[in-house]
């Protein structure tokens, strides 16, 4: 997959794709249905399958101090899209210049002149241009005038209503990772490099791979059964484990992070990119009367996690 981060200077091989447009946060089943529809159009036209997205997320651009809401980082999103067979990811910088384009200018300067897209696919609720003034009817009109096709994909509904990033955030905030998985079509994953910690886990007999969750939507704090993918290095592979998401109340006030104990693993992962998938919420964080009580609870957590993960 090729990633293009500028619509003004684009090589011929990166122009002319059929592309779905959106933020694709989480790359959930609704997003995947839009990508599948775009794939069929791209195949029919004999052009690359593309995605046009934006970085940072427009919501983040307009409200930088608002609580973190993203389900995945740009890197994790790109990794997921590549797995789905996307050939061109147009990850355009969302800045003052782009946000000031009128709907017509966006269609002309970005879609037609910059990327020369042959066809675009959007959701039924798609809005674009300065102040989100453009809608799907405007896009159809511009496409007819400017020479690119437009397809509007219907919103996807699951057993529990509309599949959306908002509904997935709610499920995660309430400690329902399996409900999130049903909407995502994959386990919700938190990706990042393993960072140094205070090594208390090692002293307790539970060495952990620690990861920052800065900039990401925070699921319910507590202990989870998890699936771990080590993405690079000599230990690359898939593992089972248990993870604590939170502030570690036994040890004072701490910044929230994710600490993952990988079952039956020995090795150094510092600086290694990993992906941790949340499977089951086991319990909330707690402050114990003693380290012995904490260790006993960790033993129980890991035993339960092993059983749950073995049943997958």
From TrEMBL:
<keyword id="KW-0511">Multifunctional enzyme</keyword>
<dbReference type="InterPro" id="IPR015864">
    <property type="entry name" value="FAD_synthase"/>
</dbReference>
<comment type="function">
    <text>Catalyzes the phosphorylation of riboflavin to FMN followed by the adenylation of FMN to FAD.</text>
</comment>
<keyword id="KW-0285">Flavoprotein</keyword>
<dbReference type="InterPro" id="IPR023465">
    <property type="entry name" value="Riboflavin_kinase_dom_sf"/>
</dbReference>
<comment type="pathway">
    <text>Cofactor biosynthesis; FAD biosynthesis; FAD from FMN: step 1/1.</text>
</comment>
<dbReference type="GO" id="GO:0008531">
    <property type="term" value="F:riboflavin kinase activity"/>
</dbReference>
<keyword id="KW-0418">Kinase</keyword>
<dbReference type="GO" id="GO:0005524">
    <property type="term" value="F:ATP binding"/>
</dbReference>
<dbReference type="Pfam" id="PF06574">
    <property type="entry name" value="FAD_syn"/>
</dbReference>
<feature type="domain" description="Riboflavin kinase">
    <location>
        <begin position="183"/>
        <end position="310"/>
    </location>
</feature>
<comment type="pathway">
    <text>Cofactor biosynthesis; FMN biosynthesis; FMN from riboflavin (ATP route): step 1/1.</text>
</comment>
<keyword id="KW-0547">Nucleotide-binding</keyword>
<dbReference type="GO" id="GO:0003919">
    <property type="term" value="F:FMN adenylyltransferase activity"/>
</dbReference>
<keyword id="KW-0288">FMN</keyword>
<comment type="similarity">
    <text>Belongs to the ribF family.</text>
</comment>
<dbReference type="GO" id="GO:0006747">
    <property type="term" value="P:FAD biosynthetic process"/>
</dbReference>
<dbReference type="InterPro" id="IPR014729">
    <property type="entry name" value="Rossmann-like_a/b/a_fold"/>
</dbReference>
<dbReference type="Pfam" id="PF01687">
    <property type="entry name" value="Flavokinase"/>
</dbReference>
<keyword id="KW-0808">Transferase</keyword>
<dbReference type="GO" id="GO:0009398">
    <property type="term" value="P:FMN biosynthetic process"/>
</dbReference>
<protein>
    <recommendedName>
        <fullName>Riboflavin biosynthesis protein</fullName>
        <ecNumber>2.7.1.26</ecNumber>
        <ecNumber>2.7.7.2</ecNumber>
    </recommendedName>
</protein>
<dbReference type="GO" id="GO:0009231">
    <property type="term" value="P:riboflavin biosynthetic process"/>
</dbReference>
<dbReference type="InterPro" id="IPR002606">
    <property type="entry name" value="Riboflavin_kinase_bac"/>
</dbReference>
<dbReference type="InterPro" id="IPR015865">
    <property type="entry name" value="Riboflavin_kinase_bac/euk"/>
</dbReference>
<keyword id="KW-0548">Nucleotidyltransferase</keyword>
<keyword id="KW-0274">FAD</keyword>
<dbReference type="InterPro" id="IPR023468">
    <property type="entry name" value="Riboflavin_kinase"/>
</dbReference>
<keyword id="KW-0067">ATP-binding</keyword>
